[in-house]
Amino acid sequence: MPILNRIAEFHADMTAWRHDLHAHPELALQEKRTSAVVQAMLTEFGVDEVVTGLARTGVVGVIRGRGAHSGPGGRAIGLRADMDALPIEEATGLPYASKHPGVMHACGHDGHTTMLLGAARYLAETRNFDGTVYVIFQPAEENLAGGEIMVKEGLFERFPMQQVFGMHNWPTVQAGTFTWREGPVMAAVANIEITITGKGSHGAHPDHGIDPIVVSAQIVSAFQSIVARSVDPTESGVVTIGHINGGHTYNVIPETVEMKGTARWFQPAVGDKLEAGVRRLATGIAASFGATAEVVFDRAYPPTVNDAAATQMAVGAARTVAGDARVVPMKNPTMGGEDFAFMLNAKQGAYIMLGGGRGADDHMVHHPAYDFNDEILPVGASYWATLAEQLLPREG
Ligand code: NI
Questions:
Q1: pLDDT, tens digit, for every residue of 256-298?
Q2: What is the CATH number of the domain that holds 215?
Q3: Which of 189, 25, 17, 37 lies closest to 114 in space, CA to CA?
Q4: Which of 189, 295, 326, 372 is 20–30 Å from 197 (CA)?
Q5: 219 CA distance to ligand 1 centroid (A)?
Q6: How far does the centroid of ligand 1 lie from the alpha carbon of residue 170, in Å?
């Protein structure tokens, strides 16, 4: 595949950067070391400006091209990577495994940061484009919406750009193959919290209490009917309860049970149906047993929706790098969530997937044995650089 030659030359460097980031993972909004490493490297590469402070640990590198469109008010695009890790105990056994107990780069954001650094090095060195490239390193993609914070703190006002692009590695797609989709690509996410309050009692005397564990069981069962019975069958939705906590021992009926879960959807009307169903069933079932349910349905991330024109720009660059056969449409969007959604709500852009799959033994992202595939570092970096050169072409 025609990876840019200059980028192929620093594949070994990129691998070393990635392993260093992997060994030092940091949780959302705590990416101090990662942010410092990114700043130091961008400075070393000779980018025009390194701007810090957005969303606490966020970094924006400014790289100006050559030509009439490269000044203030000219053409500009944003390329975005995420920097945060997950609260997972790493189980890869790799020599560069996490040195931070309970924290792990299990989603490949170490690779995302590295690919964008590789592109920044190339773009700062070659300047074979006419316009401005903003390389955006955002914190807190996982749960804490660092992308939303950057947008709220003025990312697109301080760095005016026409489009913004994102990319994620994907272990179930063959290494080096890009997949893309116009329209919805990742789902909207809500976090559900339910507290059921009954009345505690002796386990041998249930008639003296109201058992919140029995109530919680009815609620979990009833939730299975929300998508099946109230969502348009041609639409997609998920309601999952992932955590139940109540009681301590054999013979005591507890006073309360706490439940946590997630809801996912694409269409706003489906999100409304899921929320209404969760609230109605939890409170109604609790009330029918003489208990109460307090329900939080916190809409965390909107759906990630790709602009059609920007998607074709991304596809064009991907085809240049990987060849037509390795750039394939995604059949379906995924029900995973992604906070690049906030950037796409504010700015034209697109988010594509880069396969990292090696074979049948691959682990999915968020698995304790997952590791980003270093083979694709030059592919991703070449994609970023090619996208910049194609969207901001030099004349002549
Ligand atoms: Ni991720």
A1: 999 999 999 999 999 999 999 999 999 999 999 999 999 999 9
A2: 3.30.70.360
A3: 17
A4: 189
A5: 31
A6: 9
